[in-house]
Amino acid sequence: MIKICGLIIVIVSSIFAGGVLANRVKLRIEELLYVKKILLMFRGELAYKNAMLPEAFLTVGVRARAPYDKLFKSLSKATEDNFSTSMSCVFNEALENNLYGNTYLKKEDLLKLGELGDTLGYQNQTMQLSNVDLFVERLSVLIAEEQGKMNDTMKVYKTMSMMTGIFIAIVLL
Questions:
Q1: pLDDT tens, position by position, 109-159
Q2: Radius of gyration of the chain (CA)
Q3: Mean of all residue pLDDT scores within the chain
Q4: Is the pLDDT of residue 19 over 80?
Q5: Longest dimension (CA), the chain
Q6: What 3-state class would DSSP assign to 83?
Q7: Which 3 state secondary structure label does DSSP give 65?
Q8: What's the DSSP call for residue 85?
Q9: 74-88 pLDDT tens trace
Q10: Does the bond joining 67 to the residue before it have cis omega, within 30 degrees of 0?
Q11: Contact status, residue 18 vs residue 163, Cβ threshold 8 Å
């Protein structure tokens, strides 16, 4: 009886683990959509308010949810206080301090977001807006690709976890 209960627990826990992994795929896409939204907010601050970078970062930071609020507020403070460090370094440091481990984004997503920092801060407003537009476009393509793969990936996670649980139960019998 105890052995059967143990086998059931193994199967159920492996199925649960697959559900958690599948849910992470969905949450990552939601995070990517939110990043796109706040970048469009940032673009609006630059384009329509003609805001300088520190002011645009701060405005977005006030309106964004955690941990993105901390990211944009720290970018605002860093760009306001420190003119000697490159924007790329400031942006990547802020990403590392505020987003790594605090979101469902993959490391590759954060590295791509860090590339945006390479294009900010040293060009005129038109070029900065063009670079933000280009990044948002690339992000849109990534989101579309991930949404296309989402259902298949979620099914694979769920199926493989269930099969793994059943395999372990058979081995333990």
A1: 999 998 888 888 777 788 888 889 999 999 999 999 999 999 999 999 999
A2: 21
A3: 89
A4: yes
A5: 73
A6: coil
A7: coil
A8: S
A9: 988 888 876 667 788
A10: yes
A11: no
Distance CA 22, CA 25 (A): 5
DSSP 106-154: -HHHHHHHHHHHHTSSSS-HHHHHHHHHHHHHHHHHHHHHHHHHHHHHH
Cβ(90)–Cβ(75) below 8 Å: yes
C-alpha–C-alpha distance, residues 71 and 60, integer Å: 10
Pair of tokens at residue 171: 């081995």
For tokens 């309106």, name the residue.
63
Q: How many CB atoms lie within 10 A of CB 113?
A: 20
Q: Which residue, 120, 114, 80, 122, is CA-closest to 94?
A: 114
- Burial class of residue 126, CB neighbours in 10 A (0-12, 13-18, 19+): exposed
Of 80 and 42, the one with more pLDDT: 42
